[in-house]
Design goal:
Layout (H helix, E strand, L loop, with lengths): L14 H7 L5 H23 L33 H13 L2 H10 L9 E6 L3 H12 L3 E6 L7 H10 L3 E2 L6 H12 L8 E4 L3 H9 L1 H6 L2 E4 L2 H12 L7 E3 L4 H24 L7 E5 L3 H12 L3 E5 L3 H9 L3 E2 L2 H4 L5 E4 L9 H6 L5 E4 L18 E6 L2 E5 L5 E5 L5 H5 L4 H20 L9 E3 L2 H11 L12 H7 L15
């Protein structure tokens, strides 16, 4: 058989050889096949391995009447028929959330949330479902919606709706869908929320603006994100916060575990699943060196990336220097960077002018809650072309052919494009549950119309519930030691001003 490198020039001795060769894909066909496999792989793993990501049903759930096995239609999810699969996801999550399950069992008889009507706006994942079902087991009535249009696990939302929890969320909501879901979650005949659990402040803002009478009757707000807490402090400063609120984000168990240790693992997961990037030798800039930034930098440095930091806070900047990172201005290094990661909670941290100066192939993503950190709106202009190459991966193409790789349209990377460790979410969920119990049961006058931190004793209790997972055994103070230190033998062991 005579042949050259080009397939079209190959000559065959007989028809059988030609027929056998034709079974193999062409070069273009191999590329297409590879793209198809890669697309399928990405779709199946994106956003917490959502089973329904690859669904061909493009009908918006708002136009699709659905009823669960109980005959209720007070929900709006992608496909209620996926409830059984979602139930298995929840059962898997429960295995690594033993502390929250332990809290559920300890307090189930007392029903400390009996009479609580909780409206929640968080990421809807299997781990969140364990929290919601714990709140229900403790006596609460719950209505739930999603705080992110990309992070919902459709099958988990279906499983919750099947059990009777009104859920209004699906992956891939439009902006209009997002606010519609929040409104449907808040409004229901004969039902009025008296507690709010929020992640980002959108639900709180909506109730405050649209339903002021409902807002005034709320007994407490629990908020878990930097963005949401900032908005609460703004309301408080303006004298417009008429209910007590609990800042869970700045509790030690949230800051150190969810923000630091969780992001240390999930940043790599999100980047690998979406881009298949090799980190060794890559130039990376992380905007912000708070707990999230610290976690991201530690992970990236460990895999050989060359990491630098941008910061506005001299204390965080000094910490970055002591940890071996250069502190730079983004405008000074933007042309050199292979990856740009934001985690500040601020807006326009990466501007259009900086996006214009990025080199070809630069990856841009956000690990902060808010989608305002990257100026994505400025990229939706006539001279730029958007090309969807994978689920949650867009190439933004400039007129000269330069491509910038934007992940999750600037929204939260780890929950939009990958998964978050269940154990860490158990810590956060337990903290949220205790904060709700505290605010709902607090005697009148304990909490005024202001923003509070979780009591130190509760932080320590959350940590103690998770120690058995590691077969960890605490040392107990003797009476003499406790007296010497001026401590109660049962805690709290650190003053409120202590920095862990």
């Amino acid at each position: 058989m005579a042949h050259t490198l080009g397939r079209e020039r190959i000559q065959f001795v007989n028809a059988e050889d030609k027929q056998e060769f034709s079974k193999f894909p062409t070069k273009a066909g191999r590329r297409s096949l590879s793209r198809s496999i890669s697309q399928s792989s990405t779709d199946s793993y994106s956003s917490a391995a959502s089973y329904t990501d690859s669904s061909d049903d493009e009908t918006t759930p708002r136009e699709k009447p659905q009823t669960n096995s109980r005959g209720s239609n007070d929900f709006c999810v992608k496909n209620i028929k996926q409830a059984e699969f979602g139930r298995r996801e929840i059962e898997i999550a429960e295995q690594d959330m033993s502390a929250l399950i332990s809290l559920r069992k300890r307090a189930q008889g007392e029903k400390p949330l009996a009479g609580a009507k909780i409206v929640g706006c968080t990421h809807i994942t299997a781990q969140t479902a364990v929290l919601i079902e714990t709140l229900v087991a403790l006596g609460a009535q719950c209505r739930w919606t999603a705080c992110n249009i990309y992070s919902t696990q459709n099958e988990v939302a279906a499983a919750l709706a099947e059990t009777g929890v009104p859920v209004f969320a699906w992956k891939g909501e439009s902006e209009d869908d997002f606010w519609w879901c929040i409104d449907r979650c808040v409004t229901s005949d004969g039902w009025q929320a008296n507690m709010i659990l929020d992640d980002g402040g959108d639900l709180t803002h909506w109730v405050y603006k649209k339903y002021p009478n409902t807002f005034k009757k709320v007994r407490g707000i629990v908020e878990e994100s930097v963005t949401g807490v900032h908005r609460l402090y703004q309301l408080s400063k303006a004298g417009k916060l008429c209910v007590p609120a609990m800042n869970v984000n700045d509790s030690v168990t949230k800051q150190k575990f969810d923000n630091l240790y969780c992001c240390r693992e999930s940043i790599l997961d999100g980047l690998k699943r979406t881009t298949d990037i090799m980190f060794g030798g890559k130039q990376v800039v992380v905007c912000g060196y708070g707990e999230v930034g610290k976690g991201c930098c530690t992970a990236l440095k460990a895999l050989g990336a060359i990491v630098c930091i941008t910061e506005i806070d001299p204390i965080c900047a000094l910490q970055a220097c002591m940890d071996g990172f250069r502190v730079v201005k983004l405008s000074e290094v933007i042309r050199l960077m292979d990856v740009v990661i934001t985690c500040t909670g601020n807006k326009n941290v990466v501007s259009r002018e900086q996006l214009d100066r990025m080199k070809n192939g630069c990856i841009v993503c956000n690990m902060g809650h808010s989608n305002t950190e990257i100026d994505v709106a400025s990229l939706r202009s006539p001279e730029l072309t958007w090309e969807r190459v994978r689920s949650q991966v867009d190439h933004i193409i400039w007129p000269d052919g330069k491509r910038v790789i934007l992940l999750a349209e600037g929204r939260l990377l780890n929950l939009s494009c990958s998964t978050v460790p269940t154990f860490v979410l158990s810590i956060t969920a337990t903290t949220q549950a205790l904060a709700l119990i505290e605010l709902f049961n607090a005697p009148e006058g304990r909490y005024k119309q202001d923003v509070y931190l979780l009591p130190k004793k509760m932080d320590e209790y959350v940590a103690s519930l998770h120690l058995p997972n590691f077969d960890a055994h605490l040392t107990e103070l003797t009476d003499e030691q406790a007296k010497y230190m001026g401590l109660n033998k049962n805690g709290p062991f650190k003053p409120n001003y202590y920095r862990y």
